[in-house]
Amino acid sequence: MNANIALVTGASRGLGKNAALKLAAKGVGIIATYNSNAAEAETLVREITGNGGRAAALKLDVSRSDTFAGFATEVAQTLRTTFDREQFDYLVNNAGIGIHAAFADTTSAQFDELVNIQLKGPFFLTQALLPLLADNGRILNVSSGLTRFSQPGYAAYATMKGGIEVLTRYLAKELGARGIAVNTIAPGAIETDFGGGVVRDNEAVNKFLAGNTALGRVGLPDDIGDAIASLLSDESRWLNAQRVEFSGGMFI
């Protein structure tokens, strides 16, 4: 029997890369997407294949919904040539950007960029990939702790993530007949290069967030990669239409 296959968007760095590695360590085949950093994506593929796994990297700009039909064709070809499969099992909508701007200063261009990448992108990418997603598969959308607690400068970003959480419930309802479970993971502050690496590199910010987290530190990529692998495991098969926050207890 062929192993499960996960398509992880934005997998060349950060949480997406960590999730891909954690899933691969559990025997899951990986289709990793990248936008601009082909070298990092190929490094990820070599690491997975070097450890006995199967992986491929495909270029995808999630802000360009007009390219998704062509991307789906590439995915179908990759499934056949790399995995000897016609469908994949897990879709992780992870790719995204962070824009920090006060509500009063947020521009229309910034708002539109966030819409295209964080909301319109996952909506229509999932739609384009539905024929390739196996029955009884899983979709995991990546949101943010910022939909529960508020921090100045993230009004537009959090608005998009709130939309993703609503979309999750609708997808769960509409895809349930195919046995497809759909959930949201909402990370808290994590030490990555996201948003310019502010949580990782700014000592004052890191200390402030750690001081407002029940477990006394900010998150690490492994915390979220492990969580994603767990949420997609067979042990979590009955979880559906849920928002699950992994934040160590931020702002509780």
What would you say this structure looks like, in words?
It is built from eight helices and seven strands. The chain is α/β, with parallel strands linked by helices and 252 residues long. The chain has one domain: NAD(P)-binding Rossmann-like Domain (Rossmann fold). Helix 1 links the parallel strand 1 and strand 2. The chain is globular and about 50 Å long.
What share of the residues lie within helices? Answer: 40-55%
Order of helices and strands: EHEHEHEHEHEHHHE
Count of DSSP H/I helices: 8
Strand order of the largest sheet: 3-2-1-4-5-6-7
The number of domains: 1
- The CATH homologous superfamily name equals NAD(P)-binding Rossmann-like Domain
pLDDT < 50 runs, ≥5 residues: none
Strand content: 15-25%
Through-space gap between termini: 45 Å
Averaged pLDDT: 96
Brief overview:
By secondary structure, this protein is of the alpha/beta class. Helix content is 43%, strand content 17%.
Sum up the structure in keywords.
8 helices, seven-stranded parallel beta sheet, globular, alpha/beta
Write the layout of secondary structure elements.
Layout: E1 5-8, H1 14-25, E2 29-34, H2 38-50, E3 55-59, H3 68-83, E4 88-93, H4 108-129, E5 133-142, H5 155-175, E6 181-187, H6 198-201, H7 203-211, H8 221-231, E7 243-246
Parallel strand pairs: 1-2, 1-4, 2-3, 4-5, 5-6, 6-7
